[in-house]
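can u do me a favor
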């Protein structure tokens, strides 16, 4: 039985992917496989990361007389055992493994759906500010009582936020 190391086409339309296999010479392209020896993905952006081999098994099949196809012979010469592009392949695989850094998009901007919702949000913000002002005034008032004097400006400031709480019609 004559053995060839060649590519078996996988993938789908417009997205080819190949397995590098040891096959009987008479078998069809996608026929029965003796052993899968690696992969070749022509769609990978890093050229040197496209072919991956089981180097020991490729060396075994070559030692027992298997003949590689033309394309596989070129790939073995580049990326096989003692290949010419092994350092470049290692670097390319490392770059692909790192992946891309995706910046954090932050908080999405929320747009009010209608002007009434915007007015309501503004009223709620004003009410929250008024409550904070009342609380601050309440904290300052005991300090004023200790000194014996009540500041008339503080009492007037406490009454004004209550008037702001009424909704404008």
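np, heres the sequence
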């Amino acid at each position: 039985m004559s053995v060839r190391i060649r590519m078996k086409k996988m993938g789908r339309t417009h997205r080819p992917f190949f397995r590098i296999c040891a096959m009987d010479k008479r078998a069809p392209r996608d026929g029965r496989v003796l052993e899968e020896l690696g992969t070749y993905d022509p769609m990978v952006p890093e050229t040197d990361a496209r072919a991956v081999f089981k180097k020991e098994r490729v060396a075994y099949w070559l030692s027992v007389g298997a003949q590689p196809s033309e394309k596989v012979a070129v790939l073995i010469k580049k990326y096989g055992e003692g290949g010419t592009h092994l350092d470049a392949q290692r670097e390319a695989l490392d770059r692909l493994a790192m992946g891309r850094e995706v910046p954090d998009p932050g908080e999405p901007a929320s747009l009010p759906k209608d002007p009434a919702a915007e007015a309501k949000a503004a009223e709620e913000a004003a009410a929250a500010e008024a409550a904070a002002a009342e609380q601050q005034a309440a904290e300052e008032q005991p300090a004023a009582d200790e000194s014996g004097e009540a500041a008339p400006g503080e009492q007037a400031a406490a009454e004004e936020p209550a008037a702001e709480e009424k909704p404008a019609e």
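The first strand starts at residue 3 and ends at 12. hope that helps!!
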